[in-house]
Amino acid sequence: MIETALAFALGCFSLGTLLNFWRMTLGPTSADRILALDTMVINALALLILYGVYQGTPVYFEAAVLIAMVGFVSTVAYCRFELRGDIIE
Amino acid sequence: MPDIIEIVISALLVIAGLFGLIGSYGMIKLRDTMQRLHAPTKATTIGIGSVLIASLLHNYAVQGHLSFHELLITLFLFLTAPITANFIAKTYMAKHVAEDEVPDSGRDYGWTVYDDPPMSAPDPVTDPKE
């Protein structure tokens, strides 16, 4: 039963990543693109953790923590750049 | 693995997949950037939280002891999602919303998106005497 649910969740998040990619190419504003990229990072995180459950190893959590932090920092950096034209003033 | 834990994990995974898909689909379907901000920041956050709780339970069922890595990621994401949303909203407002469209800030100075914060250095163009 868990295998079926895992396959379903993996499919949902993969489809979600494709939809994010669509929004990222479509735009139309830069805020949309940043939002799509941020959601893509969260979806990638979910895929990574689901793959960890599928494989039965806790190795992927370290990578998940790193991706979560890098994703947040990069989103804030993009927004700062759009807002102020500079990341650290 | 007991049946009840298996059912709970499967239900959490299905809920997570649905919420993640709804969050990403909402970003395609909604019409305005400010509306689109709602779908991923709320639905996807619930989705990832559900995935992480399912993973926590699965680890507990397989290995027999709780690990708190997942809770750490959940906490981090739930803390950073509103900050991200606020930053993206400010990015949109700075370019597409005029200053007179937003309500008054009720302070001596305006919103920081349009005005610099009060502690900032004086601008030599607007304040030549400083």
From TrEMBL, chain A:
<dbReference type="Pfam" id="PF04066">
    <property type="entry name" value="MrpF_PhaF"/>
</dbReference>
<feature type="transmembrane region" description="Helical">
    <location>
        <begin position="6"/>
        <end position="22"/>
    </location>
</feature>
<keyword id="KW-0472">Membrane</keyword>
<keyword id="KW-0050">Antiport</keyword>
<keyword id="KW-0813">Transport</keyword>
<dbReference type="GO" id="GO:0015385">
    <property type="term" value="F:sodium:proton antiporter activity"/>
</dbReference>
<feature type="transmembrane region" description="Helical">
    <location>
        <begin position="34"/>
        <end position="54"/>
    </location>
</feature>
<feature type="transmembrane region" description="Helical">
    <location>
        <begin position="60"/>
        <end position="79"/>
    </location>
</feature>
<comment type="similarity">
    <text>Belongs to the CPA3 antiporters (TC 2.A.63) subunit F family.</text>
</comment>
<keyword id="KW-1003">Cell membrane</keyword>
<keyword id="KW-0406">Ion transport</keyword>
<dbReference type="GO" id="GO:0005886">
    <property type="term" value="C:plasma membrane"/>
</dbReference>
<keyword id="KW-0812">Transmembrane</keyword>
<dbReference type="InterPro" id="IPR007208">
    <property type="entry name" value="MrpF/PhaF-like"/>
</dbReference>
<keyword id="KW-1133">Transmembrane helix</keyword>
<protein>
    <submittedName>
        <fullName>K+/H+ antiporter subunit F</fullName>
    </submittedName>
</protein>
TrEMBL record, chain B:
<feature type="region of interest" description="Disordered">
    <location>
        <begin position="102"/>
        <end position="130"/>
    </location>
</feature>
<dbReference type="InterPro" id="IPR005133">
    <property type="entry name" value="PhaG_MnhG_YufB"/>
</dbReference>
<feature type="transmembrane region" description="Helical">
    <location>
        <begin position="6"/>
        <end position="28"/>
    </location>
</feature>
<feature type="transmembrane region" description="Helical">
    <location>
        <begin position="68"/>
        <end position="89"/>
    </location>
</feature>
<keyword id="KW-0472">Membrane</keyword>
<keyword id="KW-0812">Transmembrane</keyword>
<dbReference type="Pfam" id="PF03334">
    <property type="entry name" value="PhaG_MnhG_YufB"/>
</dbReference>
<dbReference type="GO" id="GO:0015385">
    <property type="term" value="F:sodium:proton antiporter activity"/>
</dbReference>
<keyword id="KW-1133">Transmembrane helix</keyword>
<protein>
    <submittedName>
        <fullName>Na+/H+ antiporter subunit G</fullName>
    </submittedName>
</protein>
<feature type="transmembrane region" description="Helical">
    <location>
        <begin position="40"/>
        <end position="62"/>
    </location>
</feature>
